Amino acid sequence: MLQDENRHRRVECGAAVLILCDGLSAHWGKTGNGRSLAYVMLLAPLSYSTFAFINTRLNLAVTGALVNTIVVVGAALVGTFVFKEQLSSMQYLGIVLAVISMTLLHLD
After folding, report:
1. Which helix (H) or strand (E) is 25 found in, with range?
2. Coil, helix or strand at residue 59
3. Exposed / middle / buried, residue 78 (Cβ in 10 Å: 0-12, 13-18, 19+)
4. pLDDT for 47-70, tens place per residue?
C-alpha cells in the first residue's frame, strides 16, 4: 500500500514538471519572452527524464496517454489563468473526458 502511494506521488511530481515545462513553453510562444525560452531549454531534459521515469512505473500506452493528457490539461490551465483565455463548453467537456479516460486507463 505504501509503495503504491509513493509511486503515485512520484508520478504526480513528474506531472507537475511536465505542466511547468508546458506552461513555460506556452508563455514563450505567446509572449516571445526570452527568459521563458531559456527556462524551457534548461528544463527540457528534465521533462524527458520525467517521461522516462513515469514509463518505468507504468506501461508505455498508459504513460503516453497520461503525458498527453497532462499537457492538454496544463495548457488549458495556463491559457485560462495566465492568458485569460476562455474555453468553450465543448472544450471543457473534452478536458473532462480526457481526465475520465486517464482514470479508466489507470484502473488495474
Report:
1. helix 2-31
2. coil
3. buried
4. 888 888 878 877 888 888 888 888
